[in-house]
Amino acid sequence: MNNKEFLEKIKNNEISINEGLDYLKEFNYKDLDFAKLDFQRKERRGFGETIFCEGKEDFALAEIYKSFSERKESVIGTRATPSQYERVLELVPEAKYDPTGRIISLVYEQSPKIGNIAICTGGTADLKVAEEARITAEFFGANVSKFYDVGVSGLHRLTSKIDEISKANVIIAIAGMEGALPTVIGGLVNKPIIAVPTSIGYGANFKGLSALLTMLNTCAEGVNVVNIDNGYSASYNACQINKLIEEK
Fold first, then answer.
1. Residue 84 neighbours by CB distance under 10 Å
2. Cβ–Cβ contacts within 10 Å for residue 237, how many?
3. By the 8 A CB rule, do 176 and 183 touch?
4. What is the sign of the dihedral through the CA atoms of 15, 48, 81 and 235?
5. What is the pLDDT of residues 146-185, one digit of tens each?
6. What is the Cα–Cα distance from 199 to 147, expressed in whole angstroms?
7. What's this model's pTM, rounded to 2 decimal places?
8. Are 129 and 181 in contact (CB under 8 A)?
9. Ramachandran region of residue 66, left (φ > 0), alpha (ψ -120 to 50) or beta?
10. CA angle, 121 then 138 then 37, to 5°
């Protein structure tokens, strides 16, 4: 909740004075010792904090979600495991989990959807990264159009959808193997493209390094590249661009 919403709730007696004082004690961030939760990120950045779940102890992650739940703050956590979700669910029953995108979502108020982001994948094996990007984009208030399995090995699949893809404000192109998809799309559209290399591929793919290098060395203009398998960052960047376009 932003500052205006907080004051409106106090004014309308939706939050008591004592509850308001408790809220203000953790106005900037909450110190859990093992984590310091940034409650003001949305005010500074336009989008709220996201939890990176991978590597966190289950008990710590559960306590983090509990803290957001107590403030009725919406949040998502990426790279979450089913066991982590089960632990979170014990403390926060309203939390939801998407096993493909590996995201734990806690949503109290969803922003109206604006604009459009197209998410394209080279193959079905890129689905985990694509769904991470999709859930993130929708959480941050963007409409999403999916174009999965339109890789360059069957170019007709891509060209048959290119007119629809080009209607989006931003395009996220996700591919493993040699990573050629963003370059091909870049030669056909006039929209910004965010390329995501994935770790999908045989040995010389080097767990995504070959796709990463292909994307970094693209000859197509307007292609920006994020880290290997990083659907979240691609989506965050796309949401920023999408928001700026819609606000203009």
1. 23
2. 17
3. no
4. positive
5. 999 999 989 999 999 999 999 999 999 999 999 999 999 9
6. 19
7. 0.84
8. no
9. alpha
10. 115
